[in-house]
Amino acid sequence: MLKDVYTFEDLQHWGEATAGIQPPIRLAVTGDPVAHSASPAMHNAALAKCGIAATYARLHLRPEELAAGLRLLAPNHFIGLNVTIPHKAAVLSLVDTVDEHARKIGAVNTVLVEEGKLIGFNTDGPGLVRAVRAEFGVDVRDMRVMILGAGGGAGRAIAVQCGIEGCERLVLVNRTLEKARQLADELSPYFKGPHVSGPLSRLAAIPWEEDALKSQLNQIDLVINATSVGMKHADFSPLPSSLILPHLMIYDTIYTSNRTQLMCAADEAGARSANGFSMLLHQGALAFEIWFNREAPLEEMRAALLGK
Ligand code: NAP
Fold it and tell me: Which of 221, 211, 231 minimizes the C-alpha distance to 154?
């Protein structure tokens, strides 16, 4: 019977640990912890829909097991792997080749096993772009974007993606301002072009303070929450409704709740909002496209994530 979570020890004796499992496990998500991951439901629905004879499982690897665990993928006939917290940055230096995009982001969330070699990709940033298009009907490249939590892994992936897309403006906000400043320095080559949106600087890092936020928000179209604030039920909204202007589109990357505190604050202010479910879906669809070089069955993946 398929286990909820496989371990490094299982991977070392894979034939034995997965005996009788049909179709065989050839894809997995690894993290520490990983038991909460919804990726198996989404990808197993996609595999079934496409008639691909493979099962997707959860694989718990501790940081000290990661390098050896990755080396066991090819001998055990894996097609690929998804990588989640806390391994995304570490995997970058453990694969044979890193896609240019993942290198710029500095993190890998998708691994393809090809002819015994591991290739690292990152679909978080491109997934966010597709999600914003699906939710609001706009392209990130046309937007003036503010990222809350520009010091974390997701915030960084999204900020680099905004740079690659060439968005109109990018304002980075982080509780620890120094991290946002460093990221802004790194991204400055992307924002050297001429101003389309007035005299304000195209790229800025600002402190998480009411006055600083207020002075920027009327020059922003899209606010993305990439902090972990809102994951717990008792959390406050990272932006109070009094600061949210009705013209703003608010994308909360958190997907553990249907209506996050930030979305409730957006409702109060009359602004449109969406949660991170669509980013989760699209980063998964992009990973599927990397593994199988074919379009992902989005509707089946969406339904599986929703538990339908
Ligand atoms: P992370 O690397 O731990 O980063 C956490 C970020 O949140 C940092 O910027 C941190 O600021 C900030 N933060 C934490 N507590 C805060 C507080 N009380 N006040 C203000 N800022 C605070 O985590 P991550 O992996 O980037 O994940 C961040 C969020 O993205 C999570 O909610 C996760 O669910 C979401 N996410 C969603 C998807 C998706 O597909 N929808 C994919 C990836 C991640 P400091 O730098 O100051 O500590």
Answer: 231
Residues 26 and 6 sit within 8 Å (Cβ to Cβ): no
User: How remote is the CA of residue 298 from the centroid of ligand 1, in Å?
Assistant: 26
* pLDDT of amino acid 199: 73
Ligand 1 pocket: which of 182, 223, 227, 286 to mutate (most atoms <8 Å of CB)? 227
Question: Maximum Cα–Cα distance for the chain, whole Å?
Answer: 65
pTM of the model: 0.95
- pLDDT tens for 5-33 read 999 999 999 999 999 999 999 999 999 99
Q: Quick check: CB of 280 below 6 Å from ligand 1?
A: yes
Distance 74 CA to ligand 1 centre (A): 32
pLDDT for the residue numbered 196? 64
Over residues 83-109, the mean pLDDT reads 96
Ligand 1 neighbour 285 (Cβ under 6 A): no
Protein residue with least CA distance to atom 23, ligand 1: 152
Residue 23 neighbours by CB under 8 Å, 6+ apart: 47, 52, 53, 54, 55
C-beta separation of 230 from 238 below 8 A: yes
